[in-house]
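BUG: 3D viewer hangs when loading the predicted structure for this chain

Environment: internal workstation, default settings.
Expected: structure renders.
Actual: progress bar stalls at 90%.

Input used:
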Amino acid sequence: MRKITAIEAQKKAPNRVNVYLDGEFAFGLSRVVAAWLRVGQQLEEEKIERLQAEDACERALQQAMLFLSYRPRSESEIRQNLRKHEIAESVIEQTIERLRQSGLANDDQFARAWVENRNTFRPRSRRMMAMELHQKGLEDEAVSSAIENVDDEALAYEAARKRAGRLNALEWSEFRRKLSEFLARRGFSYSVIAPIVTRVWNEAHTEEQHYEEEDLT
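Structure tokens produced before the viewer hung:
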């Protein structure tokens, strides 16, 4: 048995405390894990080990929550982040399971949200989105489900229409080259790009002609 002789807040980590046993520093704990400890309390070695194991899980969970606070993450991204903080594999798996149970780790939801975000703000091809999701560690099934209803032609048109505003002053050949290169960087195939570029050019210049005719009337 060892006796708790002091419990002191850590200066650089207010949510953690230092625990002293028999007059010497023994280990640090999160305040959540140490909440029931009191000076003068006797601890068996088994209990000390359990406290440290609980603290490791709590630290991993808090790190995962911090990582998730910036944006949604895939399970693979969460694992990589926890490994970077030198958290044991067994603790990582416990943390992932806790996040799954609370709905904070769900690769199917993550994949759908990623595709929706891309479609809304930075349209790109099915192939490129699938590649991005695989790079984030998602399994084939989650990726296939997420991109199942993606329409490359609709996305290419949306991307081209947004980009064309910067290129409308160009001659046709330069317009075609620059817009085609832009769409290619977004992963669209030539068979999709060619008719979309022509369509966007025709729409833009039809509108210009319409405005010119209005000015003359």
